[in-house]
Each structure stands twice: as C-alpha cells, then as structure tokens.
Amino acid sequence: MYIYIGIEIYCAPTADSGDTWVATMRHIAIEGGCYVLSPIQFCRRKDYPPPPEYLYSPTEEYVTPDSIVWAGVVS
C-alpha cells in the first residue's frame, strides 16, 4: 500500500486489545515493511477535567434524571 512508503516505525496507540487490532497491526507491518509499535493508552483520574457544575443556581429547581424538561413555550 502506498501509504506506508518510507515509514520505518509506525506508531498506533490504542485502547483496543482485541485480536482484530493485533491482526491489523501485523498487516501494516508486513505490507509496509516497517516496525509497528502499538502501546496502550491510559489516563489517571487527575487527567480528566472536573465534573461540570450544575446549570442551575441553588435557588432554582433541580433537574433529576427522571424529570421532564420542556424546550419552548408551554400553553
């Protein structure tokens, strides 16, 4: 495949550990004649942003998962 021409090391980080991913990486290595590195990805809790704040102030009504929210004018 012309995409891999001149590539010596192909790096493809992934969160997938399935047999399909391994076969895909092996295919790229064989067809491209290159080394393939496929490290796993991981994140620590501190790497994620903090949870979003509520959209309502404490004086307004809270929306719960079983609430019905209307968009528009109620007649």
From TrEMBL:
One of its GO terms (molecular function) is catalytic activity. Coiled coil: none annotated. It comes from the Eukaryota. InterPro entries: C-N_Hydrolase_sf, Nitrilases_CHs. Signal peptide: none annotated. Transmembrane segments: none annotated. PANTHER family: HYDROLASE, NITRILASE. This is Bifunctional nitrilase/nitrile hydratase NIT4A. It comes from Vitis vinifera (Grape). The gene is NIT4A.
